[in-house]
Amino acid sequence: MVTGWRIEKLKSVPKMRGLMFRLAAVIFGLFVAGATLKIVGFSPAAMVVQALSYTLGTSFGLQDLGTLVTPLLLTGLAAMVAMRVNLWNIGGEGQFYMGAWAAAGVGIYYEGPALVIMAVMFVAGSAMGALWIALPAYAKAKANVDEIITTLLMNFIAILWVGYFASGPWRDPKETITASSLKIQYALPEWFGIWNIGIFFVLAVICFSWVLFNKTVWGYETTYVGANANSAKYAGIPSSRRIMTTMLLSGAIAGFAGVLEVSGTVSRLQVGISSQFGYLGIVIAALAAGSHFGIIIAAVLMAILLNAGIIFETHGLSLHAVIALTGWLLLLVGIAQVAAGFRLVRVETASQTRTT
């Protein structure tokens, strides 16, 4: 008998198997990154200890952590919602910008009771986020146009649009260094002087999404469409409609994140207000792999990593290295996610001998 090996594709991937493969990929990626830093002369252990001490052990670190984790939770959720129908919303960045723009317009030019104006800001920002993805969603649902290209292109339009208003008609003449709009007079109150109460809104949105996708017929049908759109049509599920509504929901969540940024963090519209939150949300969604709880874990880890960049810079390491590390981890997680669907199978074959 001759023993050999072959690769066999699994019919389905258990969630625990997928989680273990992704976790192993992250650990391996961090190990390689640490070894690389050591080779070029840095002390990765000391840097990590100092970064964690600052992030989790000081009020400034915790405040920065909250500032980062709030938008990351929502942009990660927005990307994951689109993945429910097996689509990639690469336009979270643009939807974030447009949500912030709509909220800023309401906050700057309308007056009234603070509670009412804040409610209008959230509605306007979420609606604008949904509107910004409406065209790519319709094109995908009706003509199967690649949503990756269309949502990505919409980002550039949104960034230029916001840049025009922040540096033009809405610009605060007192701001001479950064192109910023007039200050918004309506802001979310702080919670214990560290985080604003927007974090509770975020958790409420995540809980709502979990219930929607796991406890309703709409959620079941949407997941079915994502698994097999053709089969869903035969089952009587309106696939195009589910794609449209899911993508609109994804855009609304990203727009909601933009509202939180202008109402709870910067209090004005700025060029570069997003800090790449929309793109980082894709990384978070990929790490979470469809789990709402995973979104929380991945967003917190990403926020700690980004916050650690401040400490890394004091050691002479560029902040761009943190972005590079993020891309490296995403690459490994993507490979691990594919690898989880295969396994090595031992094969024994009968050996044939020739006699003369």
Q: Your description of this structure?
A:
This protein has 356 residues and is mainly alpha-helical. It has 13 helices and 4 strands. The strands form 2 sheets. The protein has a two-stranded antiparallel ribbon. Strands 2-3 form a two-stranded antiparallel ribbon. The protein is globular, with a radius of gyration of 23 Å. The model has no long low-confidence stretch (mean pLDDT 86).
Structural class: mainly alpha
Main sheet: strands, sense, barrel: 2 strands, antiparallel
Order of helices and strands: EHHHHHHEEHHHHHHHE
Beta strand count: 4
Q: How many distinct helices? A: 13
Task: Describe the structure in brief.
The protein is mainly α.
Features:
4 strands; two-stranded antiparallel ribbon; mainly alpha; 13 helices; 70% helix; single chain; 356 residues
